[in-house]
């Protein structure tokens, strides 16, 4: 278990109050895979709201349903019951076309594997969502992100010519390029060393603080979760703890609680 | 290891199925070619056996020694017949009078295209005729016609048909009967036939002489055919020969075997090209499959598998794949060959009964080629795989592409060597025409192979440039980049199409150049504007009544009109092409020829003119004498060479005075040249000439363009034939592109998932794959066209001295090839694009 990072984030007090409108709201989500004996219920009646301009981490042990929750929130997976609302649009029940358009316009993604297109340069990768939408990206905004991520010197490089940290920074820029309603980050530091992780998380923090970006991040790294404004803990497909303003130690303590197998109901209460 | 190979194969069923399709195709073509050849042969043999069936011995005219003589029917004389009748052991004699004839249908045209109408006496026993309507011809003005003739001519019972031969005038006959043949057939091998009384048949075919085409003799009971033949030998005249029916049939069988062999070789050629192209495809697939399994192979090496075992396991896989594909191919080929035989036999031969023969060689060859090619193609990838160090198993998969330096350097050397050979050949530096032509051809082949090796290197700039065509949208741009991502794979995939397109482009370019050269020559050198001539493709040469020449000369704006007669004569013991015309100087002038030496443009009865190379061939010059015997001539005439013509394809040959026309095979002119006044309306004159020719069914007036088209009609057939070849290469190419794309889509699952996750629509995904596919296909086609044009140009230059002095690009055909390439790309993209569009986003982006 990694220890808390030495450069713990500084949070701006009162930010949550400024952004009370919910960017993403899930109500009564159910999601099960398989059927009969082999059925696995990944989400059981999950209701959660993510305030606009807030950085939320979703944590939980393997198989707790945290990835499923994120996929359902992002319109990548379907739900059996319940609704997901992104920026005022109920996405549950939308067809593939509408969902694709919604992901394109309102959602940004950061993946563990970076997932940059090897045939495109860093700059082209950053502009990819706009290109797909045949839209013109806002040049001032793009150059601001590039400057913030310190990628000016790398724009003409292909992903194979970049380090892992640089690739993930390009992926961050890509996620933010369209000013999405919400950015979903799936284990964004899972493939990075400590230093690069710090850079990426620092940027995510900064984009929330400076640009008012909404970020939902799935992670199992307590020190990564410590960058968030709030940590939502999942276990067995249910939200078991909602921790505001976490520190790495808080997170570790909470997770230890799961490992000692304290009855879940008691924990949640 | 074998079990590992089998399990590995089971896991990649779809790709293996696609790859094996190429092997199936190649094997099937080979099996089909051999089955078709054998079956057609069997069918034709059965047809041959019907001819003169029931006879024991045949007396027929001696086969003429030269082609010139063969134009004239020599008959078995009445004297020989009398001697045969008097011979002991002869039970019965069937009398046959047969030959070719021209008959005019209800549309005013001569009946029958490639195959001429046959004439026979009704009493002839060579075929088993069955009267269907009416009766047999009893008077000289009556005929019975075959059902096929009735159908083709549009003439029926009670109507009148006009028929004639080169030596007889047009005569009207009343159709009193319509007949078919045994087995309910309408024709024998699809031909048309008219039967006459024996006397009338002799008038038409033997100038009224009492002569026969065959005596079909039945031996008396107890008399052996061989003994009878021996007994007849001394009694027949020198003009006749005696053969047992068995010998006759064996000879006919051998003759048709030659022809069917030709057709079979043509199909075999197609099969071999399919096999050749599939080598690339199989090698590519195995390379791809092995690249995906490097870790697995390294792991096997790590746990103790030897290099030999790795090679053997991959070869075992190839062997299994090749065997399955070859067996399927052989089966498909046998079925296809049988079906094709039935189609050909029914539509062309009207065989009634089709014999299907499956020679063991057909199956063996299909299996050997299919299996051999697959194993051979897998050998290189297998050996390469065995070189994977075991430590690779522990490393993350290295995706770096193998360098293409080696093959690029080799390809450059081969291309340069080929180019040098071509240059030397073209500049006549190899000593001797044959060496020059051979050097050019070998050089062309080397360039072809060299460029094939260079495709990987060429793919970088070319794919990028081609892909720019699609860059109007982003999905297209991504597709273009993807096509250029793996040069080696793109190159091998495109090679399949390139090979086919190169071959057809080179051939089409050469043929188009030949055609353009002829057209060019006509445009510049030939003075005559119009030609009176018949179709180039017909068994009997077209001819017309010379009396129409006066009508043509009388037409306004016609300045000169000269008719030409042709014959093949024996000159000093050699077969020679002889012309005559009422105006020797005029014909040379109108055809753009030139009298190089001697002569005044007129020929006395004992004078002969000839072109330079024909004179050289016989070693004669001005003032020398030659002896010539014409087709119908009974004795040689002595001529003195009075003029030498400059060599010119249009005027080459010998010229004599028109005094000998009656001894020519065709006693009527076969062509006329018409010189139209400058500035006159050619179309109006053409129409007037056609009016003058209204009573001549075999010929019509043609302008340069039509005449050249008629002369070069064989090129059109050749071009069509090679397009079929392209079609075949295209099928294989589609398979190759599908294979490569499916693999690419699988490899890029994660990428596709990401693109879909961040908002790429299914439509955009489909477009991306289509662009990749079409770009690869176009790359192959463009390369093929470029190399094909280059080779065509080289061949044209090599043949420039033979008169092919114009280089012409078959623009329409090339546009067609590009369109075909786009079609290949589109077809090949269907399955991979569908798969890409259906990418499961969650599965694709999930962690490893």
From TrEMBL, chain A:
> What GO molecular function terms would the record report?
ATP binding; ATP hydrolysis activity; transmembrane transporter activity
Q: Quote the PROSITE patterns the UniProt record gives.
A: ABC_TRANSPORTER_2
Gene3D superfamilies, sorted: P-loop containing nucleotide triphosphate hydrolases
Out of the domains of life, which is the source?
A: Bacteria
One annotated Gene Ontology cellular component of this protein = membrane protein complex
Annotated Pfam families: ABC_tran
Q: Where is the ABC transporter domain?
A: 24-261
Q: What is this protein called?
A: ABC transporter ATP-binding protein
UniProtKB/TrEMBL annotation, chain B:
Q: State if Transcription is listed as a keyword.
A: no
* Species assigned in the record: Glycomyces algeriensis
Subcellular location(s) per record: Cell membrane
What is the predominant subcellular site recorded for this chain? membrane
Per its UniProt entry, which superkingdom is the organism in?
Bacteria
Query: What's the name of the protein?
Result: ABC transporter permease
Q: Kindly list the GO CC terms recorded for this protein.
A: plasma membrane
Q: Where is the MacB-like periplasmic core domain?
A: 17-234, 490-691
Q: Enumerate the GO terms in the molecular function aspect.
A: transmembrane transporter activity
Which residues belong to any copy of the ABC3 transporter permease C-terminal domain?
270-390, 725-841
What kind of membrane protein is this, topologically? Multi-pass membrane protein
The entry's keywords:
Cell membrane, Membrane, Transmembrane, Transmembrane helix
Transmembrane is among the record's keywords: yes
Q: Output the PANTHER family linked to this UniProt entry.
A: ABC TRANSPORTER PERMEASE YTRF, MEMBRANE COMPONENT OF TRANSPORTER-RELATED
Q: Which InterPro entries match?
A: ABC3_permease_C, MacB_PCD, Macrolide_Exporter_MacB
Q: Which family does this protein fall into?
A: Belongs to the ABC-4 integral membrane protein family.
Q: Which Pfam families match?
A: FtsX, MacB_PCD
TM ranges are 266-294, 314-342, 362-383, 404-425, 437-458, 490-511, 717-746, 766-795, 807-831
